[in-house]
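worker-03 picked up job from queue 'complexes'. Input manifest follows; two sequence lines, order preserved.
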Amino acid sequence: MSLEVALSALGGMLTSPYLMGLMLIGVLVGIFMGIAPGVGGKLGLVLLIPFVYGMDPLAGAVFLLSMHAVVHTAGAVTSILIGVPGEGATAATVLDGFAMTKNGEPGRALGASFGASLAGSIAGAIFLGASLGILEPVILAFSPAEFFLLAILGITFIATLSGKSVIKGMTVGLFGLMISFIGLDPSTGAERYTGGQLFLWDGVDIITAILAMFAIPEMISLGVTRQTYAADVQEPQKIRYDQVGQGLMDVVRHRWLVLRVSLLVAAIGIIPGIGGDAASWLAYGHTVQSSKTPERFGKGAVEGVIGAETGTCAKEGGSLLPTLFFGVPGSSGMAIMLGAFLLLGLQPGPAMLTQHLDVVWSLIWSLVVANIICVAILLASAPWISRLAYIKTSLLVPIVLLFAILGSYLGQNAWENLVLIIFLGGLGYLLKRHDWPRAPFVIGVILGKIAEDSLLKALAIWGYEFFFRPISLVLIAMIFGSIAFYVYRQRNPRVGIAHG
Amino acid sequence: MLKRFAAMAMGLALAFTASAAMAADASMYRGKTITYIVATGPGGGYDTYGRLIARFMQKYLPGSRMLVRNVPGAGHIVGANTIYAARADGFTIGMFNTGLIYNQLMNLPGVKFDLAKMSWVGKASNEIRVVIISSKSPYKNVGDMLKSTTPVKFAAAGVGSAAYLDTRILDFVLPIQIQTVTGFDGAEGEMSMIRGEVVAQVGIASSFDQFVKNKNGYYALAMSKLAHDILPGVPQASDYVTDERGKKLLALLEALSDLGRLTVGPPGIPADALAVLREAHLKAVRDPALIAEAKKLNIPIDVGTGEFVQQRIKEALTQTPETVALLKQAASAR
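worker-03 finished. Artifact:
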């Protein structure tokens, strides 16, 4: 019965030239939003909403969702080619994606990223569709107690992402945690390390922190060494579909990784309260941790790109469903989407599942189909896009710095972020130059806030008993398992889950 | 006699300013860009109202361009400071949470504005404060809460936010022991009520409309006489407050329900420009197309003129030192 509805919804969508046309426009706009600095999906949605007035509810919703769905997919382009992540969720892609570009494999990195996005969105949607019936109890089972423990689990990945020296990694990770404590104390409202600056009341802007850690240091070191950054300095003479194809094949080779990450992230995505940034870093952390050769990550391991990109795309469907079923948005992007749904005349709520299952399926499918269209467009143009990687340093450095500065400024409209990006960027350069890992910093910044906030809530609601909730116990076991696995592998270097 | 003469003179003066306002024509905005600052990020209630009003004000300021700019940060304070510090030429207006009245009254850090001096353009909605009880909670009504021997858990946004202060005031004035669980931003509080972790939340009635329709909770208490019409049968908080100090504080909270979604400019906007803006705002919020769109978005529109708002803000800010001390006491009690 449910399968029938699912298939007829898909059929209805694919055979409607109107819907497909709208999706194509949505996708093109989404690609632009993903690649342009500082725009991002949220602002994109707000700008597009006036265009859907008067549209048929389903058409309007499909249009907006298809735009929203591909922003992350397209955002990988700048992450990989010039090392500038568009938002927190795509930052994990920079680690290995940009490293691959520097190794002379931009095409392969793009191929792998697009392939992984596609696989992630399909697997995520199927997983969500299959679990529609049990979705409500699952969503409701997760509370601040579990958010806290999930964040702690993520923080244990710092060890894995530290590379050669766990001491260095932990130092950087703790520094990231410290940065996450900047702002108003959530329990007392007291200012912490804000220096009286209002722009720091809400904490350090994540995008600024990420740009400072990744984009700025790369550009400083390029400027200092005066190299072209793609290793084969030769301008590519012919269009390189072979590299792109190789990247796609990498996704197929690592299909089990893709499947594991998709399920993990789709599951985390449906829990309102964790957020997309955390989900994609958890995905990346899992990828590195489960690899037999974790030392390759951060230096251009294709699995890193695949894990991170699968992660960012699989979670989209995840945040859609609580929005639809409870009328309570699962993310800030979905909060805007909720407004648009109401405007279009779609009333989110429990009745969605019982009375409008066809609409629910159409929306889930639109995430998948939009990603297929987007990936087709991006793949076809990948060889041209990847030429960006061969821009001369003298041209690239100013462009990237401009992108980074725009991205940092536009996020909060605060010029003070520009001071912050220079300060943190200098720090990031020192870390890079002395070969200290930078990923743990981002983990600390992103998860520190979630951990603190959820811990305070959990304690206020249950007291210390929250540690004994059933799911809490499972998560605690996973945390200890994660640490034990790391220690065990330090002694037996070749253990890991086959990524093939 | 003298009194009557003064009244006549006043009436004349008023009539004169009114006609001057009429004479001020919207042509001064032709070909000009007006920046509308929203003190939150894109999405959410303030952004929705701000964009809607900006779009329709543009319609009534022919040839002008309204540019919406999001200036989020520090719980609307950054946005409010930005509007306050803008050039008073009538080309910058905006919207922020009127709960900042609390911040000004208590002289909290970060405040670089004086709401009494600002140029108020108009009001778009009432903000009727209510208590919502979760359907999952064992408490069915206020009576149950009053009888409770253990603290009743209320979800609230960050410490210092308007929603947090509303909750603290309620704890102070009602004979209910409220435990304020903070840090619930956006829809997190609603999710927490659906999961049955917290019992209740203080919020704006209209923003819980969908939540109540989906049977996730119900209105249990209202903090405004305006609620009689839209929420018939819901008891009033004032019925449960007996002491004078509590009544004073509750009166302040109730006064805020009249002042929602206000559009405002910096102090000292020239009278003619302000008159044009007020007229455009009034026409915008009375526009049937705006009303129809608001209805679809499930956001209420309650019209108020700039003059009305200016008066009410002044009143709300005129509190005795005693009331301010009570407010501080309520805010700091934990």
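worker-03 released lock.
The first strand of chain B starts at residue 33 and ends at 38.
Chain B touches chain A through 49 residues (CB under 8 Å).
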